[in-house]
Amino acid sequence: MSNSKNDIAWQSIFDKHKIIERILKEGHFEITATEINKFREARLMTKFDHKSQLPKLFVENNLSILPTSRGGYVIGTFETFCDFNNDEIQVTPIEFPTFLESLDYRDITSESTAINCAFVAKILHDFTEEDNLLPTVSGRMSSSTFSFDINSAKGAFTVNVENSQVEIDGGYEGDYSLNLIEAKNYISSDFLVRQIYYPYKLWINRIHKQVRPIFLTYSNGVFHLREYSFANINHYNSIVLVKHKKYLIQEGCFNLEILTEIIDKTKKVNEPKTPFPQADSFERVVNLCELLSQRDFITKEEITENYDFDARQTDYYSNAGKYLGLMEIGKDPVSKQIGCYLTDLGKEVFTLSLFDRQKEFIRLIVSHSVFKLTLKSLLDNGEMPDRDEIVHIMLKSNLYNINSTSTYFRRASTIVGWINWIMNQIEE
After folding, report:
1. Do 17 and 29 form a contact (C-beta atoms < 8 A)?
2. What is each CA distance from 170 to 125, 166, 203, in whole angstroms?
3. Could you give the angle at which helices 369-381 and 405-424 cross, rounded to 10 degrees?
4. Could you report the per-residue pLDDT of 165-181, keeping only the tens digit for each?
5. One domain, residues 66 and 144
6. Among residues 170, 167, 76, which one has the least CA distance to residue 119?
7. What is the pTM of this model?
């Protein structure tokens, strides 16, 4: 895989300033946006919302970067990211105000729209347990001056911040608390703690009420909220998950009867000449399709740079979408870069209501016999078949481009993941 533009530019900067040597000697290296801009725009060179987006040099040397001022950064062996918990939790159904015409929860294309929907549907009120909740602060603002400690390879390192830029996606104040929302309309496995820590540090000293950092993720009709706190307000890595809930806007009741009807009525398709999916999270397949539904074409490089996909995952998940007939992979006629776009079927799916959309995703999955047979085995026996049985089903299904026993076992995890997603759609 060729190096990205960021990789190439950072290599030149590291070579010029002997950054590795300086960090080994001094524990950190400070650099300005002006110096970075000589090689590539600093805004593009320093925006890493997830570990997967870090340049190769950073990954290889366990480095990260934090802003310290409006145009200054510090590089060091800092622990800047936090993994999301993956605990299975029950989804809370909610109703959306029917009189609203200017806000469509079926077509959420930005973080701000996701927050607006969460507010008007009283999701934020329920999650914060604040009855009187009003929008107060949002947008870009100055951090003022503060210091904090962060874990590094040589122990705690003190970072001094002076008028760095802070961005708050949404701030909602109630009787007892100020709730600072960081929102994403795509699924990820981790997040940059700075995105909630800097706003927290800014407002904790400005008001008397409790300041509550909240991370909101929206995808495929589900609002996932996680509230964090900091056990030590002056230590970046003292982050603690306080609570989390999932909400789904109610459109219909999906039950075993509907699932059985889909299984019985769906005709088998021939296996496509496309690699069998190696994409364990069906949520992320849907999410990639969602992102494509908002734009005509996204290059593979853009997907890797802007969302929590590394280059291999971008290939895996785009191929999974192609396997189901939802997306296609091709070359952009203008940039000549390889990327993805929705097929006519994919576009049609995203005109459906959320309820019908889920049913169509399930229909597309079970139209492939390996998934249908595995799902039927689960429903008949009350438990997921073991890997040996799934591989046995796969061997009978004429799958394309699988040529070793070990590959069959690896791909079985995709079948398990997608079947679990289907079963999670069923309401208790």
Report:
1. yes
2. 14, 12, 13
3. 60
4. 999 999 999 999 999 99
5. no
6. 170
7. 0.90
